[in-house]
From TrEMBL:
This is Uncharacterized protein. It comes from the Eukaryota. It comes from Rhodonia placenta.
Length: 169
């Protein structure tokens, strides 16, 4: 058994997938390394959240009954209801991963309790929703060239300039 993907893509429901990382390889890593890799994976998942949402919308539009095992009911096959469920699942995943990452691991072993997260205020919730709407609006209004990746010039500017071997400046 290992970490893998279902034949139809990555799935939270488990079962019959292609093994990406053999469990023996994962168990050979130190726990701190596993926790940091998990934290990095969280960032990658959150980075593609809207792409996952668009894929989910396609499944919702098709009435995909496999969504039932992830919490969809008869009345949840609308965009609004699905967004609420999707955001809830992503938030639960984020909380679960953050509770397991290495930053708190050593403190818990020393007797510290996990920190409690205060609920967001109404103003914070409204700001997050406004930011999400602004991002979606910017996507809708973007030109084709805006959606392309960064130019080579920008990628070079972000890179690290190494000194020449012959010069010692």
């Amino acid at each position: 058994m290992g970490v893998g993907m279902n034949a139809g893509g990555a799935g939270a429901g488990g079962g019959g997938g292609v093994e990406l990382f053999p469990m023996e390889s994962l168990l050979a890593l130190e726990e701190h390394s596993l926790n940091m890799a998990l934290f990095r994976a969280l960032g990658l998942v959150l980075a593609v959240k809207e792409a996952m949402w668009e894929e989910l919308l396609g499944r919702v539009a098709r009435g995909d009954r496999q969504l039932v095992r992830y919490g969809w009911g008869k009345n949840d096959y609308s965009e609004g209801a699905s967004r609420v469920l999707f955001d809830g699942l992503v938030e639960q995943y984020r909380k679960d991963v953050r509770a397991r990452v290495a930053l708190w691991h050593s403190m818990v072993l020393s007797g510290w309790a996990y920190p409690r997260q205060d609920p967001l205020t109404k103003a914070e919730l409204m700001e997050e929703e406004r930011l999400r709407q602004d991002i979606l609006e910017a996507r809708r209004n973007a030109k084709e060239e805006d959606l392309e990746g960064a130019s080579r010039f920008i990628r070079l500017m972000v890179g690290v300039k190494m000194p020449d071997a012959g010069s010692m400046t």
